[in-house]
């Protein structure tokens, strides 16, 4: 994968050198290549106005920025597990709101190994090939092996059903559970009467309002340009970024957490949430963009889950429908970036966990002590993987550490380990001011 290569030697060097008295400094500082900063184009300025426009929703109170709050790393602003939308802001969204940050480098959806030259391979062909392939174990020190896995990767949303920020922006606008824009004609009518309507004619000509589909497409393209051009969507200003550059020092706890994060015998977070810069110096995104079936517990607080026959299976449906017959991907959801994750209060696709402590407990105890994670049935048995139908539970990841442990074995992490990892995760929050 294009993200992986550079930094593997960096991580090894840090682990080797840090105990020798570097006092939390990176012994091998590097230069990170951040996106250039420039004034917003006219297109992006239009996109900014649309992004904050609550009048586009049926309630008149919900904008893109309402669920993707700039004060919360463009993620959900509340402690709720999902956001509320619709005409009276009383309908639950289907899933936890993902952050809109760091999507400027998100690849398109594909199924196959991490090979940009293979992106034109037919999805159905690659999916069929994936049914016959052997999946390499993911560890933080052997990411090149798992990069060859024939698995889903890339795309937007938890299930990767669209490929571009333009397409991503349109979905919440028209979704009756979210902004509830009321269909293309209704959304376009509101754009015609928006305070910024003249910007459309200035950018696209007088005839733009005669073509509703084109108008909506251009409006969503403007939102996408805003997300690409506005530095706040990808600032790379975390303490960890400055540590990589030798401009900050990690505390003892943060450094221990960093090592545990990348230790295959412990947390092994780095197997999927890659912490190394790219070969050309791009900052790490803390995701390999792949999909995993982790078996998160069912969230009883979601209205959809009141129906005991309803299951959100991610890549194979029900929201995404184009590869629903590829059941080997049932239960798989996108691996999100961990940047700014310490600012969130809803984790996993269904928002079932509200704290990082709960998330780490899930990884630590899912297989060794499942009674700590899942509910019990009336007969007292633990309902492990209770949000995936039995016929698809074989696809849940039980090979990547720490999920390769078994019932009754010693968990991978101690309580102190978890506390140190959380301390490290907090270094991924943007807005750190290095001491000059």
TrEMBL record:
Entry's localization field: Cell envelope
Keywords of the record: Heme, Iron, Metal-binding, Oxidoreductase, Peroxidase, Signal
Protein name in UniProt: Cytochrome c peroxidase
Residues spanning the signal sequence: 1-16
PANTHER family given in the database record: BLL6722 PROTEIN (PTHR30600:SF10), CYTOCHROME C PEROXIDASE-RELATED (PTHR30600)
Any single Gene Ontology cellular-component annotation: cell envelope
Domain Cytochrome c positions: 42-178, 252-429
Highest taxon of source: Bacteria
Gene3D superfamilies from the UniProt entry: Cytochrome c-like domain (1.10.760.10)
Organism encoding this protein: Bradyrhizobium erythrophlei
GO MF term set: cytochrome-c peroxidase activity; electron transfer activity; heme binding; metal ion binding
């Amino acid at each position: 994968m294009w993200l992986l290569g550079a930094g593997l030697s960096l991580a090894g060097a840090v682990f080797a050198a840090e105990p020798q008295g570097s006092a939390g400094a990176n012994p091998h500082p590097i230069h990170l290549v951040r996106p250039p900063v420039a004034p917003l184009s006219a297109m992006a300025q239009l996109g900014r106005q649309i992004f904050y426009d609550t009048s586009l929703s049926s309630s008149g109170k919900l904008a893109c920025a309402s669920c993707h709050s700039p004060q919360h790393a463009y993620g959900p602003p509340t402690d709720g597990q999902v956001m509320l939308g619709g005409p009276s802001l009383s309908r639950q969204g289907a899933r936890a709101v993902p952050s809109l940050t760091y999507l400027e480098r998100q690849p398109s959806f594909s199924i196959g190994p991490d090979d940009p030259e293979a992106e034109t391979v037919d999805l159905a062909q690659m999916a069929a090939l994936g049914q016959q392939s052997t999946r390499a174990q993911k560890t933080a020190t052997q990411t090149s092996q798992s990069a060859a896995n024939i698995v889903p990767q890339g795309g937007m949303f938890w299930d990767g059903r669209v490929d571009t920020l333009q397409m991503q922006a349109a979905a919440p606008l028209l979704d009756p559970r979210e902004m509830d824009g009321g269909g293309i004609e209704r959304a376009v009518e509101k754009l015609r009467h928006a305070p910024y309507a003249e910007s459309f004619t200035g950018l696209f000509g007088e005839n733009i309002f005669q073509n509703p589909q084109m108008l909506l497409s251009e409006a969503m393209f403007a939102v996408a340009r805003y997300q690409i051009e506005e530095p706040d969507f990808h600032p790379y200003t975390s303490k960890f970024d400055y540590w990589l550059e030798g401009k900050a020092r990690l505390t003892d706890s943060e450094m221990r957490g960093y090592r545990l994060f990348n230790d295959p015998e412990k947390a092994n977070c780095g197997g999927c949430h890659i912490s190394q810069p790219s070969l050309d110096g791009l900052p790490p995104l803390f995701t390999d963009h792949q999909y995993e079936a982790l078996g998160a517990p069912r969230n009883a607080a979601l209205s959809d889950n009141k129906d005991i026959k309803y299951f959100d299976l991610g890549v194979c449906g029900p929201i995404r429908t184009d590869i629903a017959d590829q059941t080997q991907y049932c239960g798989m959801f996108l691996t999100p970036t961990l940047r700014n994750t310490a600012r969130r209060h809803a984790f996993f696709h269904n928002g079932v966990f509200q704290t990082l402590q709960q998330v780490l407990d899930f990884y630590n105890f899912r297989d060794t002590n499942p009674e700590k994670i899942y509910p019990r049935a009336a007969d007292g048995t633990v309902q492990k993987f209770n949000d995936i139908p039995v016929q698809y539970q074989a696809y849940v990841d039980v090979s990547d550490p720490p999920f390769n442990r078994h019932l009754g074995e010693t968990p991978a992490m101690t309580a102190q380990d978890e506390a140190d990892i959380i301390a490290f995760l907090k270094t991924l929050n943007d807005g750190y001011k290095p001491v000059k």
